[in-house]
Amino acid sequence: MNLYIMRHGLTQMNKDRKLNGQTDEDIIEEGIADAEKAREVVKDLPLDMIYCSPLIRTRHTCEIVNANHIPVIYDDRLKERTLGKIDGTYREENGFPDDKFFDYNYKFNIEGAETIPVFFGRVHEFLNELKEKDYQNVLIVAHGGVLRATYYYFNGIPEDGNIYKYFNNCEINHYEL
After folding, report:
1. Using only C-alpha atoms, what is the Rg of the chain?
2. SS3 119
3. Alpha helices, DSSP H only, in 28-172?
4. Predicted local distance difference test score (pLDDT) of residue 90
5. Domain of 55?
6. Fewest CB atoms within 10 A around its CB: which of 30, 61, 89, 156?
7. Mean pLDDT over all residues of the chain?
8. With contact defined as beta carbons under 8 Å apart, do 115 and 50 qualify?
C-alpha cells in the first residue's frame, strides 16, 4: 500500500511558535494557500481513501486538498499529542525542559499530557490496523507529531531517544505500508 501523509496547513499558533497539541484552531490564510498548492499534488494521486484527524485544522486542510472527493474517515488516533497544561504556551515559558520535549526516553509528568511512547503507541496501532486494509493508495491528513510517529514507525526509535524530525505544513511524505 502506498501511504501518503501530510501535515495540516499553517495555524496562528504555528506561526507564533506556540506548542499546539489538541487546541482546536483553524488554519490561517497562509495555511489555506499551502493547502491549495498541496491540492495540485493530491489531485494526481490515485487515492482509495483519506484518513484525517478530526481537529478543525486538519479537517479544513483535508477539504481543500480533496479535489477528487475521495471518501474521508476521521480517526481520533490521528489527533496531535495531548499536551495538557503546556498546550498553547511557548516552550521557554512553560518550565518543561526544551531538550526533553522530543526525547522518547524522558519520563515526565505534565498534568494532562501524553508521554511520547503512549502517543506513538496510538499512532502505531492505527498504522498496524491500516496495514490490514485492502487499499492501494491512502492519504492521511494529520499533525506534525503524527508525521513524526509515522516516520519512526518505519525507521525505528533512535537509541538516544531523540525523535526530533520537523515536517513543514502541507508537506506530503510517502511510505510503503
Report:
1. 16
2. helix
3. 29-42, 56-65, 116-131, 144-155
4. 87
5. 2-176
6. 156
7. 94
8. no
d(CA 39, CA 62): 9
* Mean pLDDT across 165-175: 96
Q: Which residue has the higher pLDDT, 92 or 43?
A: 43
**CATH no. for residue 32?**
3.40.50.1240
Give 125's DSSP letter.
Answer: H
Give CA–CA dist 139/117, Å, rounded: 24
Alpha-carbon distances, residue 142 vs 35, 93, 110, 159 (angstroms): 13, 26, 23, 26
Number of domains forming the structure of the chain: 1
Q: Which residues form the catalytic set? A: 8, 80
**Would you place residue 11 in the very low, low, confident or very high pLDDT band (cuts 50, 70, 90)?**
very high
Contacts for 166-170: CB closer than 8 Å, 24+ residues apart: 167/7, 168/7, 169/7, 169/8, 169/9, 169/10, 169/14, 169/31, 169/34, 170/6, 170/7, 170/8, 170/9, 170/31, 170/34, 170/35, 170/37, 170/38, 170/61, 170/65
